[in-house]
Design brief:
The protein is mainly alpha-helical. The chain has helices spanning about 5-15, 20-30, 30-40, 45-55; strands at about 1-5, 65-70. Helices cover about 50% and strands about 10% of the residues. It is globular, with a radius of gyration of 12 Å. The relative contact order is 0.27. The model has no long low-confidence stretch (mean pLDDT about 90).
Length: about 70
């Protein structure tokens, strides 16, 4: 079972915290464009950025991850 960042969960956590993409970007030292790309699932943030995002949103990293079950071949 692999874990990956869920753009949907990230967006929901950010909105729930009442933080704009721009505010989150400033807080974690990235651009608003990067935050949007993370939320769309096009780009995966590195571990240090993921930690900063979770801290800023007051969430655990696990709250921002989805589980993916690999299909057996």
């Amino acid at each position: 079972m692999a874990r990956h960042v869920s753009g949907r969960r990230l967006r929901e956590a950010r909105k729930s915290a009442g933080i704009s993409a721009e505010q989150l970007a400033i807080s974690v030292g990235r651009s608003a464009y990067s935050i949007h790309e993370y939320e769309l699932g096009r780009v995966t943030p590195g571990v240090p950025i993921l930690i900063a995002i979770a801290d800023t949103l007051g969430r655990r990293i696990d709250d921002l991850l989805d589980e993916e079950i690999a299909n057996a071949a």
